[in-house]
Amino acid sequence: MTDDGLSNRYLVVARVGDRSLHHQWIHPAEDRNFDLFLSYYGNSPGRYAEECEFYTACKGTKWQKIHELIANIEERVFRYDAVWFPDDDISTTPGNISGMFRLFQEHGLLLAQPALTANSYFKVTAQHIDYRLRYTHFVEIMVPIFSRDALKACWRTFDKSVTGWGMEHVWAKLLSYPFKKMAILDETPVKHTRLPGQGELYENIKNELKIDIWDERNKDVWKEYGIAAPEPSDIGYYDGIKLWDPYAPSDDVQDHDVQPNQAVSRENHPLAAGRTKHVKRKPPAPRRNRRGNGLRLNRTVAKREKRRG
In this predicted model, what pLDDT tens digit does every residue of 88-126 receive, in sequence order? Predict the structure, then answer.
């Protein structure tokens, strides 16, 4: 129990339907450092109510209903240090989520997301196994993590779009494109199990609201905030923290597989299987010439110097 009465410092808020994967996030409970708030939009009111600390049931879209939820219980939400808003088709474990929050907090981030394991729509968010995290100015609406301060700055934009698409650019601008405060968390990847626009919530948007989700691109919102959003192919990262140095000395490691959604570390990295110690190789020392009256470069260095000249 924390000083302000919270059982955990972090909160997961998810809009969930009848095909939700949130049950994967719950057990084993001892791996959790977060509370769970489920907002159910399915057809059996009361479903999942016993699986979370906080619960509500209502129809509607993800971000507009989350905006409504925060407006109603603002004081409770802002007691947490960080809040994650995943889609309900995200496959991961409580241990991985807890590690994600720790990594987020360790580096003092404002806004981030876990990397995606495969078939990512935006390639910048696909996992890079060489990194713990990479700094960026783009975090997908699918799985964003907000610090308390970042959430206070951004939550009022949540109801400005039916789908939420394109709001990532608005959030980055509201946070003044912070240097090394937005990141993709490669060390704690999650799996997105459905193609973009194919989830249950999107089906409801298309069928009930009669909205073509592919045309709902938030251009009016971008105009309101003076944003010229880049093309997906132009979005990238500009720096990062490496997971480990392959040439640094290391202890022997065991040959074993990394399970899906398991946090990648120096010990369980796929490329580390069967590897023993790595020793940094020093560059060859210059050798004396035959007459002993000076130093001469080795052949490789000599060729390189010749090309440069």
Answer: 999 999 999 999 999 999 999 999 999 999 766 667 899
Contact 158, 62 (CB under 8 A): no
Contact 239, 180 (CB under 8 A): yes
Q: Which residues pair with residue 13 across a beta bridge? A: 37
CATH code for the domain defined by 10-242: 3.90.550.10
Query: What residue segments make up the domains of the chain, in order of their start?
Result: 10-242
Taking the alpha carbons at both ends of the chain, their separation in whole angstroms is 68
Residue type, 288: R
**Phi, psi at residue 24, to the nearest 5°?**
-70, -20
Which DSSP state fits 4? Answer: T
CA distance 241 to 132: 6
Strand 111-116 to 182-192 pairing: parallel
DSSP 188-213: EEEEE-S-TT-SHHHHHHHHHS---T
**Alpha-helical regions (H) of the chain:** 62-72, 74-77, 94-106, 148-154, 167-174, 200-208, 219-224, 299-308
Report the Cα 143 to chain-centroid distance in Å.
7
- Distance of alpha carbon 209 from alpha carbon 61, whole angstroms: 10
pTM for the structure as a whole: 0.74
